[in-house]
Amino acid sequence: MAPRYQTMVNGANHNDYNTDWTEDDFQQWGDTWPGPKYCNRNRDQKDSIRLSAEDQRRTGLFIINSFMRYHVGGETQFAAYWNGVGALPKAACPLGIGPCDERIVLTVQKGGASLTLVQRFDQSNSLKLNALKRAITFSGFDDEVRCGMPADVTDDWGSLPLLRCDPKSLPDFGYGSYTGLASIADHVKLVWSKPATNAPKREVSIVEDITGISAKGFDSLTFRIAVVRPMGQEVEVTLTDTAGKSHTVDASNFSDALYNAPRRKKGGTTPKEEDLPMLDDPTDAPYANGEVKILLNMVAI
């Protein structure tokens, strides 16, 4: 099985990867028609994440060329990036200034012997058993809903596959008239309540039993996550070995996938509570109410 990739470029539009057609983008429907071209740069864009046309093409030059040179040309200098452990070069960054890994979020699914699968949510019992036929336990959540990949079922427009969730659909995963903040990949939706100001800290957890797996020969533990609403919190990952020794790390130290807008963890002397992913940072403000695309992005530790 070949590896599969997803790249999300924060701040890109549909057309500026080329210089030939730049004025035929999606038109907004409103009281007057035709409305403004949704992704044109002559709109009154006040957000801080939009890439310029030139900077957008920088990302395309690296993504497309390095992919082909690595997978077709066998040029190994790009192997680290396409295996999820290397950084973007400065040449792929806005104005050629790096680092900028928050701009392009890479997701990798390796194939064959390079992968040991721990969990999918493609089976009806996936909320109780993982892919190793061992227990998975959810604690502290208000709701856990498994959503499987749709087959040939489509909506009234005949194009979008309908998501099938068990045992129910969750209204929290849609904004306004849209219900599309959902991946069609197998996944689980999780809902939990924010505690009152004077309440104890709410702890939620997912525990996977991976007893018997050896980490020898593997370089990363990876999973995918999508942030639906900013809540100011951290995702902590703990690995416990057969001797009972544990170590916990913050996922935001390894990935920018948990932030709404493309921004990096400040680190240094910044207090942790002021440096959390999923927090309504001023940079996130235009995207805190569902106005940014939500994708399942990889955290690779």
The percentage of residues in β strands lies in: 15-25%
Secondary structural class: mainly beta
Share in helix: under 10%
Overall pLDDT: 80
SS field, number of helical segments: 2
The description of the largest β-sheet is: 3 strands, antiparallel
The general outline is globular
Could you describe the 3D structure shown?
About 2% of the residues have low confidence. The chain has 2 helices and 11 strands. It has a 3-stranded antiparallel beta sheet, with no helix packed on it. Strands 1-2 form a two-stranded antiparallel sheet. With 301 residues, the protein is mainly beta. The protein is globular, with a radius of gyration of 21 Å.
Quick overview of this protein structure:
This protein is mainly β and 301 residues long.
Q: What topology does this entry show?
A:
Elements: E1 4-9, H1 53-71, H2 79-82, E2 104-109, E3 136-139, E4 143-148, E5 164-166, E6 187-191, E7 205-208, E8 222-225, E9 236-240, E10 246-250, E11 297-300
